[in-house]
Amino acid sequence: MPIEENPPVHGGKIPHRTIGRLSLYRRQLGRMGGPDGTHVYSHQIADICGVTPEQVRRDLMVIGCSGSPNRGYPVAELVSDITAVLDGPEMQRVALVGIGNLGRALLAYFTGRHPKMSIVAAFDSDPEKADRIIHGCRCHPVQRMEEIVRAERIAVGVVAVPAAAAQGIADRLVAAGVRGLLNFAPVALRVPNSVFVEDIDVTTSLEKVAYFARAGKPATA
Amino acid sequence: MPIEENPPVHGGKIPHRTIGRLSLYRRQLGRMGGPDGTHVYSHQIADICGVTPEQVRRDLMVIGCSGSPNRGYPVAELVSDITAVLDGPEMQRVALVGIGNLGRALLAYFTGRHPKMSIVAAFDSDPEKADRIIHGCRCHPVQRMEEIVRAERIAVGVVAVPAAAAQGIADRLVAAGVRGLLNFAPVALRVPNSVFVEDIDVTTSLEKVAYFARAGKPATA
DNA sequence: ACTTGTGAACCATTTCACAGCT
DNA sequence: AGCTGTGAAATGGTTCACAAGT
Lengths: 221, 221
Description:
Two copies of one chain form a homodimer. Chain A is built from eight helices and nine strands.
């Protein structure tokens, strides 16, 4: 029997949109878990997260959570099951490249906020910024990037540099062993097939909003 | 039903993912239009933008662009056709709410960059920030938001406030006539059905990257 | 009566495959 | 030979509808 089991519990592939929603569910559950309700119904999660109840149930099913009718899902178990999927066993180390306005905002936003993920090093080509500590994160000259990424076993990189520099940075991060990138630069990064890239393109998003604000929202939000 | 303008050609609905890619195509075309090539092939656009050639052709077809075999698509016409769809006739005015680290980064990034879209007013609940000009944008106390949004006929709002404040701000923006929101707060905004919301959730995106960096990238990027 | 769990239908979007043009 | 334009098939994801649990 070729049953493929992994360090975490879930056996199979998790649809990629589901991962995003699980992150959402967990955050909102953390916010509501407290008063006394130890259980939630799928429709409550759905309301808070802006999705449908059956979507919630399906997502939870995928990661092997189950609830009981007329009691709902146990909050604590839900959170820990989602965490088992999303976070993996050890602290996830992240490198930030580009300490401009955006980079600093990211540092401010993230520092110390996440129990299982931390921006452990930041890099910039401006030597002014090197060897300082910004929002609790040590900054380095970009020349030392490979060395530090390797030494710290960093697997995730955040690209917050100008468009022209982004591809070069991505290449170097990948060469240093990074396997996932969050890219804020408005270019499509070319990376080997095994590396995952998520783009956040603020200009495109704003243009989309402007378009639909004018043309009328499509049926699906 | 308010302003219904009849832009050049495209008769029907444009699929919502297509809008995002058109924004991308236009930006990259602007960057490449210069040397001498007045025409591009779909596969060239595709390469630069990280999509497939047939996707490009379909997107362009939707907005009524056509190219000729063995010459490709005329760049200038492409850009102006995309612009006709995305930008609409007049300058699109945008309001920013929340002048924290992120808000300031957005102002720095956007000011004066876009020919048809401009952040014309920013708001914050901190009176320290009111009535100053940051990165060329006038800042106001949040109390005056409705008044100014209405007076300036602002149709797009950017929500860059803490989670707890986001829903209240969204309600007030919508009441003041905004029809599209770009939401950076990690909550699902409840808005009337006619208002379009695009979420940018950095934490979720990072968690997604961390997950796929660990678990292996899915087939589609 | 209200919930969960889930096969099946449905829908949007992408990709295939190829005819037609130059 | 290599491109565009586009029906048709495939894919991926969401919603429906309902059986079963409590």
